């Protein structure tokens, strides 16, 4: 399953060029012409890495970096014409992992994307596995996306199609908070206010299956007032 890269850039020519090279390297690419649109995509899509410009309308790259870091630990590469040391330091202090100045060699972007993703997965072994595999790993949980099957410490766990979709969505982005609306839209593509309690029931049943103590869940955590997230724990 290819990694998804988010490009936030208001220069259409640069967006087209970077998108072409990333897709040629096997990545799935989502594009946003401004920071606000990019943040909306990050909240609704499973993003593995972001490539951001600084000077964008509606929300600049510095603000976007701060907002992204609040909801995700994904690698962030700033791509900007601002090339002073202070610009670079500010971007890195706000949470960016890398900084590349314009003009740039597209091949260097590919190399940096690969290096940042490789480093991220080495430091986050509980995150989804590297490309070439259709299996998501989280502590003792192993979700096979091809077989739509789940095991915990090697023991099979039966899931309904809806439970599988919810767990798949959560396991693709460990630590990320998903609202009930986002989870329901990921499952069915639509959402109505009456669906909120239905999602709570699905989460409850999923906890019954994967948690050692569903009343005190270790994997699927409720984030009060926001939604749900999944975390890795080691169990015997």
Automatic annotation (TrEMBL):
GO molecular function, one term: transcription cis-regulatory region binding
Domain OmpR/PhoB-type: 133-232
Key word Transcription present: yes
GO annotations of cellular component type: cytosol; protein-DNA complex
Pfam families, per the entry: Response_reg, Trans_reg_C
DNA-binding positions: 133-232
Record's function text: May play the central regulatory role in sporulation. It may be an element of the effector pathway responsible for the activation of sporulation genes in response to nutritional stress. Spo0A may act in concert with spo0H (a sigma factor) to control the expression of some genes that are critical to the sporulation process.
Protein's UniProt name: Stage 0 sporulation protein A homolog
Species per Swiss-Prot/TrEMBL record: Allofournierella massiliensis
Phylogenetic lineage: Bacteria, Bacillati, Bacillota, Clostridia, Eubacteriales
